[in-house]
Amino acid sequence: MVEVVVDGGPLTRDEVVAVARGGAAVRLGDAAVDAVAKSRAHVDRLADAQAPTYGVSTGFGALATRHIPTDRRAALQRSLVRSHAAGAGRPVEREVVRALMLLRLRTLATGHTGVRPATVRALVDLLNADILPVVPEYGSLGCSGDLAPLSAVALALTGEGEVVVGGTRTSAARALAERGIGPVTLAEKEGLALINGTDGMLGMLVLALADLDRLLDVADLTAAMSVEALLGTDRVFGDELQRLRPHPGQAVSARRIRDLLAGSAIVASHRGPDCHRVQDAYSLRCAPQVHGAARDTAAHAATVADRELAAAIDNPVVLADGRVESNGNFHGAPLAYVLDFLAIPVADVASMAERRTDRMLDATRSHGLPPFLAEDPGVDSGHMIAQYTQAGIVSELKRLAAPASVDSIPSSAMQEDHVSMGWSAARKLRTAVDGLTTVLAVELLTAARALDLRAPLTPAPATARVVALLRERVPGPGPDRHLAPEIQAAEDLIREGDLP
């Protein structure tokens, strides 16, 4: 099995996906163990000092001015985790829980949080045993990090709350006991260190970027198939035209569409002097510009994610010289902004795909294709309502593109008077990515059917291979059939990642 070593240095996005989505095991590096032990020694020293230190010997948030006596500090940490595990709603997805656990572990391993080595090892054990705390969907404002979601994880470490093991929901106490993992009794600073991070936001960003890396390639593919099906030209995708506007993402998408159309007998059939069409519609001609801008937006978001994967997010933090300092690095704004930003091109790429689909179904604009690609128009409706499904999703994606990060609701008796709402931005982006997948699946189905209907003209070798892959799961043109399973089959094909 693949193993990811957490040594206190940056993780890569691929490593996060491997653990979160692929179930890779995690191992704590020797450098991390040393760093954690050194920072804990500093915290132990401050815990014994007369002067109060925030997070070590004081209350939290608006109660930071209250000094806590030594014999009450274990209760302080336990109470912090219990009270902050106040989420509500449906549990978030398995991959999100694994991602946020891994990313909190990475920050703990930097030696800037002051937790004990045994606590870090317990989190490693929980992750490797695939004991996943039940993390409710609501509860994070994205400032002071993802407090409620991470508190659900910390609670499970102490043997309280509920977890999911092998798809079954059970008590954390029972799951830990069955696997020989002892519950953690939290010491000074540890409760705060376990919950004060942006790990949920970051995990969902990394997962969304992995999905978009695949989906933007699929958008290029379905656009190329639609260009063929609608008797469009490939000349607009020429390299000399793209160099006039040197955006890197645009160049990538134009090259991909051009390569996918190479050798198409359908495109070649209308290149001669008998073709009087001057320009294709924007949804065909401008695909590289829209898809490319989405690629460039994702590249910016990836830069932010990579910086965060090298960050140590906690408050207060333990510095190399032993000082424990308060800071504002837990604020989720850098993540919230790009999570919101990505929802815009997701909606726009889907909107363009829906327009291409609609064009193939409209006999007045499809250049010879039957109405709605129906076998017997009037008796059969073809893909008419599949486009309705696209339209409904695109409308929803436009609503999801409204930013969450421009909102702020003060909390904690006005101590936390500005929050990022980054968790909300991440949750809506996940919904948007799923929506884009369905929209592209409908375009894939429709374009493949249209290409079949262009026979005896044949599509490009690349697009013909895609039609053949789809035909292994979905039959070709014919009388109306139950379409929902075919849309699902196309979604599955997209998610498997085997398309060019």
UniProtKB/TrEMBL annotation:
Q: Name one GO cellular component term.
A: cytoplasm
Listed InterPro entries: Aromatic_Lyase, Fumarase/histidase_N, HutH, L-Aspartase-like, Phe/His_NH3-lyase_AS
Q: Which UniProt keywords apply?
A: Histidine metabolism, Lyase
Question: What protein name does the entry list?
Answer: Histidine ammonia-lyase
Among its keywords, does the record have Lyase?
yes
Say which family it is in: Belongs to the PAL/histidase family.
Domain of life from the UniProt record: Bacteria
Annotated source species: Actinophytocola xanthii
Q: What is its EC number?
A: 4.3.1.3
Protein's UniProt keywords contain Ion transport: no
